[in-house]
Design goal:
The protein is mainly β. Helix content is 7%, strand content 44%. Strands 16-17-21-20-19-22 form a six-stranded antiparallel β-barrel. A five-stranded antiparallel β-sheet has the order 5-8-13-10-11, with no helix packed on it. Strands 6-7-14-9-12 form a five-stranded antiparallel β-sheet, with no helix packed on it. It is elongated.
Length: 331
């Protein structure tokens, strides 16, 4: 049995702090000597198990498929390649439908694909990971005849074929990052895709090191902030006249507006959907400037007018309107 030298009481009841040979399963306690705290071997094992259960941080984002973040308001409609649905997850190849089913992400092909594949992916911000070992793990199940999980790293890749329809399979892939990582789940590639074929995955994780630690549901607030590093939407929903930003009337028909944003990955692209007011009805926006590091953007709100020059103006979003800022990584 394993042995270690520890300051301990002997079974004879010595209260000294002399080193004693401790043999797991023999002594009932470890003591730090006079006034010390005795710790049982059961406590040691329990603490070790608890530390292992905490696990490493998940490099992937938005992996709690029972509480998915969906800033774009994706509603389960058919989409083609190159489209973001739920935050950080986008279609890579083929037409598909995404949904959350019993805590799993489901990608379904609505059409036959005789050759090629249908794929969903997450592009990972790999800054700081180059030269380090990472491990991917998940549980995956497919309904069709074949599929593939691929970790692409620049021109290199690690992959795991899927050949067991209807069975939840635990998958692990480990590699040293050389460039940048993309994770893709594919239906097809090793067999033709039939209309209605789907692939489901859950407990999906990428972590540093070569050991799989348990997936844990992230806190929603923290995960939402991680998503907003790449994309964010000021969405009003059913609320009318939601304040989004403020500024000053530069002319009788234009307001210069400053909007506070989170720190984003890069300078975001700006777009809008719906109706807005800035003193009077907004007819269009001109995107002036943005700072990914300073957490603000400036826009010109062109309005029907008239505004009083040099007076304060608030930008309001009307019902079911959104201002969207996109700093996603190139696909």
């Amino acid at each position: 049995m394993a042995k270690a030298i520890v300051p301990a009481k002997s079974h004879a009841g010595s209260t000294g702090t002399e080193d004693k040979v401790f043999e797991y399963g023999y002594y009932d306690t470890i003591s730090t000597g006079k006034g010390g705290v005795e710790v049982s071997t059961a406590d040691i094992y329990a603490a070790t198990r608890a530390a292992s259960a905490i696990g490493n941080p998940n490099i992937l984002i938005n992996t709690d498929f029972r509480n998915i973040i969906n800033q774009r308001g994706y509603g389960g409609e058919e989409v083609g390649a190159g489209v973001f649905t739920y935050d950080r997850w986008n279609t890579w190849s083929g037409k598909q439908i995404h949904s959350m089913v019993d805590g799993a992400f489901r990608m379904l092909s609505p059409y036959d694909v005789p050759s090629g594949y249908v794929s969903v992916m997450q592009n990972i911000e790999s800054r700081g990971l180059v030269g380090r070992e990472i491990t991917f793990s998940c549980k995956v199940r497919l309904s069709g005849l074949g599929g593939m999980i691929v970790l692409t790293d620049g021109s290199q890749y690690s992959q795991h074929p899927l050949k067991n329809p209807g069975v939840w399979e635990e998958v692990k892939l480990t590699r040293v990052v050389t460039s940048g990582i993309r994770l893709a789940f594919r239906i097809g590639q090793i067999a033709a895709v039939r209309a209605g074929d789907y692939l489901e995955f859950k407990d999906v994780k990428i972590e540093e090191g070569n050991v799989v630690t348990p997936w844990r549901a992230p806190g929603y607030r923290d995960e939402f902030d991680r998503c907003r590093r790449f994309f964010m939407a000021y969405t009003t929903g059913n609320w009318d006249r939601t304040i989004i930003g403020s500024g000053v009337a530069a002319t009788t028909t234009r307001a210069d507006i400053l909007i506070t944003i989170p720190i984003m990955r890069a300078t975001p692209a700006f777009s809008s959907i719906g109706n807005f007011t800035a003193g009077t009805t907004v007819t269009s926006f001109n995107f002036i400037s943005a700072s990914s590091g300073a957490g603000k953007i400036q826009v010109n709100a062109n309005v029907t007018g008239p505004l009083t020059v040099n007076t304060p103006v608030f930008l309001y979003g009307r019902k079911n309107s959104s201002l969207m800022l996109d700093a996603e990584m190139p696909l």
